[in-house]
Specification:
Shape: globular
Radius of gyration: 15 Å
Number of helices: 5
Structural class: alpha/beta
Helix content: 25-40%
Largest sheet: 6 strands, mixed
Low-confidence stretches: 144-149
Strand order of the largest sheet: 3-2-1-4-5-6
Order of helices and strands: HEHEHHEEHEE
């Protein structure tokens, strides 16, 4: 299991986590932050880490066997712009992403699809945090009302 870097520790600490939350980590890499978040949300919480890379997911699973076995943590290989809840899967209270091109402006078209997927995957009033603040910034997901003519 990898140690949490100071930067990731600061990001996890900045998240408004509490026991029992369902959290989605987007672009989880080897699962270091997901494991730290799973500790913070406790045995009544749940964390799903997603990443488009099969190698990253394999590393995350290999380093997380105990937390996975406890039912508090899972990983799935999927890009956020393709993410959908599985049958029977509950929505998430909070999502966060660090260095994810679809959410930090590097890939705007993928970003539009990602935001639509996140709106469907988060509870009403769910929060999305991305890096680029101090250390995070909240990304507003609420739907804008169409302009009236």
């Amino acid at each position: 299991m990898s140690a949490v870097s100071p930067r990731l520790a600061e990001i996890v600490q900045a998240l408004p986590l509490r026991a029992g939350l369902r959290v989605l980590e987007i672009g989880c890499g080897p699962g270091v932050a997901a494991r730290a978040v799973a500790e913070r949300v406790g045995p009544s919480g749940f964390v799903l880490g997603i990443d488009r890379s099969a190698k990253a997911i394999a590393q995350a699973v290999a380093g997380s066997r105990d937390a996975i076995a406890s039912g508090r943590l899972a990983f799935r290989q999927v890009a956020i712009e393709d993410f959908v809840l599985e049958s029977g899967e509950s929505c998430y209270n909070l999502a966060f992403a660090v260095r994810v091109g679809a959410l930090d402006g590097r890939h705007p078209e993928a970003g539009l699809r990602a935001i639509g997927r996140l709106r469907a995957a988060l509870v009403r009033g769910g929060q999305l945090f991305i890096d680029g603040g101090d250390p995070l910034r909240e990304f507003a997901l609420e739907r804008q009302a169409p302009a009236r003519r």
